[in-house]
């Protein structure tokens, strides 16, 4: 069977470059829509429990997690968006007051760090996933192919997280210590000389432990819903609303079932703080296995401790997944139509 026959049979009708454009656009749109939610969340957190200089907090917009270090207290110019004063009674009140007093653009103050890391990570992830589905000869609507999205999703996530992990480490260090590029290079060289090359992938294990189950559950759920709808309607493409509902539903399922791993990862990240100020206590905490931490949390605080923050996570992850997959599927469909027309005109 030729490559062209394979493409026709299995529906992989767009090029890797087109897949990259589709995923890049999806990541950008998701960041635009979801970032204001996290900006408001951080501002509310800063109001109820002010961040002190050097303290780390987690910024997460549904696509990527970012460790941010509070830099306030150095000078007037160091005042950053998550530390500005405000008296908010709730989420809606925060949206209204921030927009009125600081300008509506303030709701997207956290966008730059998201675009720097989330867009390339998402491009690698989605492009690898589509390519692996093609390699595995996955066919929409084929019941026996249920396992292929799981394999493709896990392998694509491993590659994306592994590739981006050193960049995230460098970005975090730059943000936490305000270093120049020359100082960053010196710090990386020192890190490698002391801990070896693998120190550039510090924290990769816990990240994969959370992201791989999420990826497997998400793609399995989404592709199963998609195949069911296509078989029921006798169609080859989802409508936009169908993609949106399937993406949100799959994201919710994956978010709920993997929340315990996310709780452990978040606690680790917050505990670690900046990269060069680890105490012996935090090093021990960091090196403790995820399973041991889960058991300890369960014994000390019960099952509810493993699902802390469930509602905020769903509120953030579900729309992020829905927007991402809807825009991605729409652009895929558009590119497929363009390619099909070109093929007809050539023939």
Describe this structure in words.
The chain has 347 residues and is mainly alpha-helical. The chain has a single domain (3-346), classed as Mitochondrial carrier domain (Mitochondrial carrier fold, Alpha/alpha barrel). Helices cover 70% and strands 3% of the residues. The chain is built from twelve helices and two strands. The chain has helices spanning 3-10, 16-48, 91-102, 111-135, 148-177, 181-195, 204-233, 240-257, 259-272, 280-287, 290-301, 310-346, and strands at 56-60, 65-69. The protein has a two-stranded antiparallel sheet. Helix 7 runs antiparallel to helix 8 (240-257). The two termini are 20 Å apart. Mean pLDDT is 76; it is low at 1-12, 73-79 and 272-287.
Query: How many helices does DSSP assign?
Result: 12
> In what range is the share of β-strand residues?
under 5%
The biggest sheet, with number of strands, parallel, antiparallel or mixed sense and barrel status, is: 2 strands, antiparallel
* CATH architecture group name: Alpha/alpha barrel
Describe this structure in a few short sentences:
The protein is mainly alpha-helical and 347 residues long. The protein has 12 helices and 2 strands. The two termini are 20 Å apart.
Question: Helices, strands, pairings?
Answer:
Blueprint lengths: L2 H8 L5 H33 L7 E5 L4 E5 L21 H12 L8 H25 L12 H30 L3 H15 L8 H30 L6 H18 L1 H14 L7 H8 L2 H12 L8 H37 L1
Antiparallel strand pairs: 1-2
Tag the structure with descriptive keywords.
single chain, 347 residues, mainly alpha, Mitochondrial carrier fold, two-stranded antiparallel ribbon, 12 helices, 70% helix, globular, disordered N terminus
């Amino acid at each position: 069977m030729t490559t062209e026959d394979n493409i026709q049979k299995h529906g992989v009708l767009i090029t890797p470059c087109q897949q990259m454009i589709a995923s890049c656009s999806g990541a950008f749109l998701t960041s635009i829509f979801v970032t204001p939610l996290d900006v408001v969340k951080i501002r509310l957190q800063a109001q109820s429990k002010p961040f002190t200089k050097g303290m780390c907090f987690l910024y997460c917009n549904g696509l990527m997690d970012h460790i941010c270090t509070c830099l306030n207290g150095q000078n007037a110019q160091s005042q950053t968006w998550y530390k500005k004063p405000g008296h908010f009674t709730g989420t809606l009140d925060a949206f209204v007051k921030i927009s009125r007093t600081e300008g509506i653009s303030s709701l997207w103050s956290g966008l730059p760090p998201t675009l720097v890391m989330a867009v390339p990570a998402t491009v690698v992830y989605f492009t690898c996933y589509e390519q692996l589905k093609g390699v595995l000869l996955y066919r929409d609507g084929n019941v026996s192919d249920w396992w292929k999205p799981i394999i493709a999703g896990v392998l694509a996530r491993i590659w994306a997280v592994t590739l981006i992990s050193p960049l995230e480490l460098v970005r975090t260090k730059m943000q936490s210590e305000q270093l120049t590029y020359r100082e960053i290079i010196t710090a990386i060289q020192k890190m490698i000389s002391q801990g070896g090359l693998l120190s550039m992938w510090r924290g990769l294990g816990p990240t994969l432990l959370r992201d791989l189950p999420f990826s497997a559950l998400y793609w399995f759920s989404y592709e199963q819903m998609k195949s069911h709808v296509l078989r029921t309607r006798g169609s080859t493409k989802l409508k936009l609303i169908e993609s949106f509902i399937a993406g949100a539903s799959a994201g919710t399922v994956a978010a709920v079932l993997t929340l315990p791993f996310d709780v452990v990862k978040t606690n680790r990240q917050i505990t670690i703080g900046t990269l060069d100020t680890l105490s012996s206590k935090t090093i021990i905490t960091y090196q403790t296995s995820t399973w041991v931490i889960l058991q300890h949390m369960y014994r000390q605080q019960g099952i509810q401790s493993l699902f802390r923050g469930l509602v905020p996570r769903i509120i953030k992850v579900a729309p992020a997944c829905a927007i991402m997959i809807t825009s991605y599927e729409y652009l895929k469909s558009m590119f497929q139509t363009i390619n099909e027309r070109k093929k007809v005109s050539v023939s």
